[in-house]
């Protein structure tokens, strides 16, 4: 037992894409570019929605939460990944690995619930437009956001605590570019069937329940939009939901494919590529989808940038 405990505290080796050195370098450039865009795009969304008083609405409050989540999620994974690729060491400490998979799992879980909350917000906006401000008041928005964060951390605490107690018996080669909880569980030298079953139930709850809420909300929205007599009214109602729906499809499409498919259909390389999509590509796309499709965000960005330019000109003269 002592040997197992001692070996468990060794550093982990993140294999990543090291079997393809040329591809790994190209991937590192691709990841650096997307990470820079994620930081810039999401910071822009946060700043613009705070600085422009017209964007002090429930939709943009939740969007700020989503942008902050995306920045945190990619920052939890990308810098360590790039250091490992460029330094060639490929190591992460035992504690660092636990922190990484716990935080990544928490933030991914929060996003699952937050996207469902945002679907409910769009449902209220389309179904009860005149009562929207009364229903989605500040306290309820803060309560819904807090529910997303608490449920995400609770899910991570449950799954991470199951993973931490498993003996690794010296298995420290992680066939991934970051410490992902399911990959760490597979390193264990004991039967993990019971642990994986409990984790699957937790994943089903945190993925399937929000998906059900999203689908139900959009089914009701679609039913209402179809009954709107004017084409302009239908287009406006659909426009308020289109950005959110695109983000949902991108995020849930990859995450469900990764975590809810049978084990015998799963290839580790396929898993790494899908992980690149939901950890690096999706957080970059969110601000692009919202800013390019949304007139309010584009107007606010122009207003903030123009105000900044005018102030600089006054300072200069």
Automatic annotation (TrEMBL):
Topology in membrane: Multi-pass membrane protein
Domain called G-protein coupled receptors family 1 profile: residue spans: 41-290
Coiled coil feature spans: none
One GO molecular-function entry: olfactory receptor activity
Pfam families, alphabetized: 7tm_4 (PF13853)
GO cellular component entries: plasma membrane
Subcellular location per the Swiss-Prot or TrEMBL entry: Cell membrane
Chain ranges passing through the membrane: 25-50, 62-86, 98-120, 140-158, 200-226, 238-261, 273-292
Keywords (A to Z) from UniProt: Cell membrane, G-protein coupled receptor, Membrane, Olfaction, Receptor, Sensory transduction, Transducer, Transmembrane, Transmembrane helix
Main location: membrane
PROSITE patterns: G_PROTEIN_RECEP_F1_1, G_PROTEIN_RECEP_F1_2
Matches recorded under InterPro entries: GPCR_Rhodpsn, GPCR_Rhodpsn_7TM, Olfact_rcpt
UniProt record similarity statement: Belongs to the G-protein coupled receptor 1 family.
Name of the featured protein: Olfactory receptor
Organism per entry: Loxodonta africana (African elephant)
């Amino acid at each position: 037992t002592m040997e197992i405990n001692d070996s468990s505290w060794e550093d982990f080796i993140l294999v990543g894409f090291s079997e393809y050195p040329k591809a790994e370098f190209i991937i590192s450039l691709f990841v650096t570019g997307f990470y820079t865009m994620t930081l810039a795009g999401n910071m822009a969304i946060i700043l613009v929605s705070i600085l422009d008083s017209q964007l002090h609405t429930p939709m943009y409050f939740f969007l700020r939460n989503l942008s902050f989540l995306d920045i945190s999620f990619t920052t939890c994974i990308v810098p360590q990944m790039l250091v490992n690729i460029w330094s060639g060491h490929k190591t992460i400490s035992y504690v660092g690995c636990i922190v990484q998979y716990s935080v990544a799992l928490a933030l991914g879980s929060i996003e699952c619930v937050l996207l469902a909350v945002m679907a409910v917000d769009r449902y209220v906006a389309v179904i009860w437009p005149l009562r929207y401000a009364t229903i989605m008041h500040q306290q309820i928005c803060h309560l819904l956001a807090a529910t997303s964060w608490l449920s995400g951390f609770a899910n991570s605490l449950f799954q991470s605590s199951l993973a931490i107690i498993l003996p690794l018996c010296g298995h420290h080669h992680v066939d991934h570019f970051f410490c992902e909880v399911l990959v760490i569980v597979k390193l264990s030298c004991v039967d993990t069937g019971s642990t994986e079953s409990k984790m699957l139930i937790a994943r089903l709850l945190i993925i399937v329940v929000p998906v059900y809420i999203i689908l139900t909300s959009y089914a009701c929205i679609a039913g209402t939009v179809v009954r709107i007599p004017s084409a302009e009214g239908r287009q406006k109602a659909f426009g308020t939901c289109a950005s959110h729906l695109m983000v949902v499809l991108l995020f849930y499409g990859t995450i469900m494919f990764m975590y809810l498919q049978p084990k015998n259909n799963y290839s580790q390389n396929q898993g790494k590529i899908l992980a690149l999509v939901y950890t690096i590509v999706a957080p970059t796309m969110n601000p692009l989808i919202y800013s390019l499709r949304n007139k309010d965000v584009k107007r606010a960005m122009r207003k903030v940038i123009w105000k900044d330019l005018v102030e600089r000109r006054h300072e200069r003269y």
